[in-house]
Design brief:
The chain is mostly helical. It is built from five helices and no strands.
Amino acid sequence: MTDEIQAKRVVWHSRRGMLELDVLLLPFAEQKYRDLSDDDQALYRQLLDCEDPDLFTWFLEHQIPDDAGLARMVNMVLEHAQQRA
């Protein structure tokens, strides 16, 4: 699969149907995903495989993921959102 197709799939899967998640994930996927290292791209795709209630809890900072890599990716997404604000 080409990088461009992968990036388009990531943007598509960043649409969660929950406004609180969409406003965080879509801009990150559209603006930052292509610039991430291969490892971080894989980590972001792993984050997208998580359930929406877990994502919601993590992005509201009520809990942090047990996986340190996912916790770092959640922070990257939140930092990107804060920079845009």
